[in-house]
Amino acid sequence: MKTKILTSVIVLIVGFVINAVSQTPEAWNSLISNAFLESRGYEVMNKICDEIGPRLMGSANYERAQNVLEAELKKDKMNSTKEHFATLGWVRGNDEVIMTQPTYRKLRVTALGFVHQQPQFSAQLVFAENGTEEAIAKADVKDKILLIEKNGMFGRSGPNAMEIVKNAMKYNAKAVLTYNASQPGFTAIAKTGSFASDTVKMPIFEITYEEGLWLYRLLSQGKTVELQMTVNSYCKQVNTSNLVVTFPGKVKEKIVVGAHFDSWDLGQGAVDNGLGSAIIYDMAKQMRKFNPKNHYTVEFVWFTGEEVGLVGAKKYVEMHKEDKIIAYINFDMTGYPIGFNVMGFEYYRPFFEKLITDLNGFEMKDGVKSQPWTGSDHLPFMLMGIPTFHISGKLDEIMYKYYHEAADTWDKVSRKYLSETVAVASVMLYEVANNKDLKHRNLIESEVIDMLQKYNLKEQLQKTGEWPFGN
Length: 471
Ligand SMILES: [Zn+2]
Known about the structure:
alpha/beta, 2 domains
């Protein structure tokens, strides 16, 4: 009898201590477990990638895929709205670059976005290093096609496409071929030729590492290389839209959760960004099921046109400039969670550190970092001073290796990673939208400028023409 009472007391005390230690809201249990029990997002994006395929902004495929997404959301009792706008789009045509000297061979080429058709022409090839003005000035480039060597991950180091074209125009070259000297494997990745989504004034093509090195060998041996170029890709006005699902909160201040739904046209747009689209699909579905009413309003957005200059996100920010957006959370090729990134909004660090402590069954070994970067849909929000945070995600090499290439196909998407991300992301969103200890604060313009300078992003944004604040 005595032992029984004592046991009960111990059970009570232990129960109290456990409760005192883990004060996680009940909703967490539902959000985390359900992320592994249902993965509608995986199924929906699998269907879209396999049955429709890639989704270039303004293409018929994009429209069809968006209609499927809308219908699937409806099946899960979520009503979405298309926010339409007109903009300059781009259509890939049947482009050809054929070597006619010293031998006859058709090269593997990928036109950069916004390259525009022109009559067929032939010209000699000349090497102009990495395309800086200095390199182009010292090569004899007039009326020639430039061979430019890029380097680094996805060829991102050195001058960008816009700078190369500008320099090439200045010295009256006729066209540009770029290859990435760091990436063998006969890949020629798609990318935009203009971050401002304007017509590119000179043909510029990505070619493969192997053919780039071959052309370079011929030129360095003093051989004359003659190429014939046919440019059939073209720019045209398109109507397109972002797709939006809103959960009104107790207040109008709004948290936006976004992923780009558009993709390049070469593969299936699976990892980039069927994956992110699937993640926010499941986050929305979880919210509808477990916490549809939050303190703050939450809006999920599947953006158009990210690949061709963040067009959809830029438009969204413009169309919603009267809204009180207090946070933006982005999912673009997001792998399984290993931490959080507060993207320069340092004052959110303690909040995310606590979140990592509480999510102790996940291996968030990267902790909280503050490493802002550009080049995805969070940028226009960040430039407005809207706090943006990301999950630091990890993908296996095979998943990101085929970025922007024909092999970005659904087989690369991991269902397990997706579920893990949805679990952590749903909890994070629940807290961002409800935690009363979290004091949201947007930065004013001078603070945004300071932050971007602190993290050396000013120069980069100036180079892409995306720096909105004078010198
Ligand atoms: Zn992407």
